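Human: I would love a firmer grasp of how sequence relates to backbone shape in proteins. Could you go through the record with me and say what the backbone is doing? Here is the record:
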Amino acid sequence: MDSITHIALGAVVGEALLGKSIGKRAMVFGAIAQSLPDVDFMAAFWMTTTENILAHRGFTHSFLFMAVTTVLLGYLAWRWHRDKTIPLTTWMLFFAFQITIHLLIDACNAYGVGWFEPFSHHRISFNILFVADPFFSISTGIAALVLVFMNSENRLRSLWVVASLTVSSLYIIYAVYNKVTIDKAVDNSLKEQKITHHGFFSTPTPLNNWLWFVAAKTDSGFQIGHRSVFENQTKIEFYYFPQNKSALDTLKNHEDIQRLIRFSQGYYTVENRNDTLLFNDLRFGQITGWATPTEKFVFHYYLEYPEENQLVIQRGRFANWNSETVNVMIEKIWGSKK
């Protein structure tokens, strides 16, 4: 998830775990602990773009990293509190809980996390939340602000903590329900249209959990579409995108290509656009694809111009967003045809 969400969630959870023992410092410790796995952003200063793509949410989002930092931070916090009123094991559990929450939340969106690094490069991705979902973040965000200014002895602090964490937890349950609903609808639509496929994935479109991007893998490409959780029609309008693997024949041994293929988990296409060869990772959706089904994919890597790929993950994420495309999104969310 986005950094603000981790900071706010960490602060509220910190208050819940140690607020009564060390006051508002628990919020500070919690915010720091929740943010710690994202220290991997520093790798961008010395790694190439494709190296950094794999490093991000890699080892620093692994259970091994969590175990090592739990012991280290727990010991440092215990030594820092000279009165030793909080046991070492409590400090370790505090940091373990905070970092584990970070790893779980980040696994909810499309990028995926390397829970088992360095022993396995397999990334875990549940695809149930967009990387920045204001409806998930708002409750803990408001609670964190209120708790910062509220007196440490105020009895309402516990109420704010419980209420905000309950709302965010219920939202995740709701997102799981939406995921199950969408996947069932996609499976039925593919069967109804007799589309032979080798699996599919669905992921929320930006800033909401109601309109979902869908990609079904076929022998030679992908069927791409969008589906709302409120839609009653069984048929999803799919658009075919050829994978065009053969375009990589002369480049397949290049390290950048191998890293991109590994990262995409097989959900990629190659296209020639404006005389430039692009590698598209489909898992990040299209730029306003709900309004223009043939629009570019958000993740598009210029194979012939690697120096132009600094913002490859979210390149143009909100390009073409205007009153018209937003209105189309709203209409599609409510199940209206456009």
In short: The chain has two domains: 3-174, 193-333. The radius of gyration is 22 Å.
